[in-house]
Amino acid sequence: MGEVDARPFPPGDYPLVVVGSGPGGIQVSYSLRRLGVEHALISADDAPGGMFRRFPFFQRLLSWTKPYAPVPRGSRAYERYDWNSLIGEEPSHRAIQPEFMDGTSEFPSRPEMEAQLAEFVRRAALPIRYGCLWEATRRDGDRFVLETSDGEYRCGLVVFAVGVAEPFTPEMPGRELVAHYVDTRDPETYAGRRLFIVGKQNSGFELASGLLHWASRIVLASPRPAKLSVETNSLAGIRARYVQPIEDRFMGGGVYILNASIEGVERAGDVLRVRTRATDGGMDLAIEADEVIAATGFVAPLRDLPALGVATFGPSRLPAQTPYWESASLAGIYFAGTINMGSPGLKKNGVAGTGAVHGTRFNARILAREIAERHFGVVAPRPALAPRDVVGYLLEEATDAPELWNQKGYLARAVLFGADGPYDEGIVPLQAFVDGSGPDGVAIGLEGDSEGVIRPAAYVRRKGAVSEVMLDPDPLNEFRGSSDGRARLTAALEGLLR
Amino acid sequence: MAGTEELIDELSDLALFADLARPELAGVAHTLEEEWYADGQRILREGFSGTGFYILLEGEVAVRIEGQERARLRRGAFFGEAAILLGEPPGADVVAAGRVRVVHVAGPALHEFLMRHPNVMFRMLQEQTRRLRSANRWAR
Question: B4-139: what CATH class?
Fold first, then answer.
């Protein structure tokens, strides 16, 4: 007699299937369950965590959790200071990450992050079918069929939370001689070796930083000049944690950083030779190296979804998405987690919504609400607001709301003005508000400019036309007491606050 | 969808980048960010600050002022530079007319981009001059 498979969600018919057990899949499934939306959650892995079960290679995250923040741990406002915990509705589901940090860094280690995600799943008693690999997709009338290693799942809607996790190495002569970031070995095996790293983004500089102690020489090269996050004043660019190789370069410490395209890699006896062409007017070079590693990023593992009609774009082959993270070309297919970068938002000053956990966990909660309302008739409450409280409420949100702080220029608090007066529409994608139709209303978010100044931005919709109202910054980011903000918002909402 | 090599090929066909040798074009392709828009989506928004510079790779866009369509732009056209160069919000909406693929330079990065690639700046100036000449003809 065979063993009974005790795993939840056997193949069959479901209204909705969520694919993936990384932070995106876990958060959207948790939020759907809270709204009573029946669905299956399947994952190819055998435990929760997604990419955090393997990366980053050097084990320390780029996203902080501050155990001692200016606001109480476990409060909503605390989520601004804790970029890693998933967001829960009950106290025991909140702010789990600080419980798993050993005090050596505000950036949790990879195992600490993995432990936090597993603990969230355990406390929330979230059922997940592990070891179930999504292999192919097809249409059956207006439904989707997911072919998996366990059998077929039929459903009306799918949320793919599969990360941007498929290693990508660009075409080049000698590509077979180039290892990818994911193939990096234990650091000590690079002792005395000359490394050539293709790529000057965070993964390239993470490797360079981690191997500074071991490698005898490190060359980093890519066509585009390296930018630092402290120069762009945003998360775009090399994070402060990884700038040591840049300092070593200036000190003449055996680190070289080139703006060059890689023309090819060839074997020359016992070593490799990398041919580069300068993109900044510098010299073309042939550089010897013992190892060549491509830190050239990842693509979204969408399998056959493009053939099914999911439009993709860019080097990461991200699916193009609506502001509510539905495929822009194939209705009924949604995305959660890092892959949300395919819906970049307004990109004011070039700043897109983040694909990191601190932002996408909020996207996932909004997505769950959107799916529940659009497809399952589960309508979230919209509490009424007294007209005299609206301006204060908006400034309060600009000061404290973690969604606004962690998804600047991307998520906003919306207040709409109905026949019975103003009501709280909730946290919404800003793009959906400014480009969508609906009753008169106001949405407030936070935006950073190229100088790093953060200020509240309100968008007022009257008769379908939306105008922008930029408020003054505050040196301590304390907007709730701002007399300027109060006066400007009150004027912008004239005639609506009744 | 296009990998960076394909994007370099696409850019090499556009008048804006006609003077760039392939290594420089590779640098440009790695600097530009690709975006995709569905029919009816706004790319530039009239009166909003913080906009970017866009080059149209696929599809058509409509230029609208207060909801009225004033022009259509096609592959190879660029838009958004006037707002950035003058430090003012755009005076028009630019809306995808069908599916659209563009590449984008964020407003704060445009100055450095043009200084790094003066041949692109020259081609842009040439196109602006053509537009001005056309406008003058219309005005007569």
Answer: mainly beta
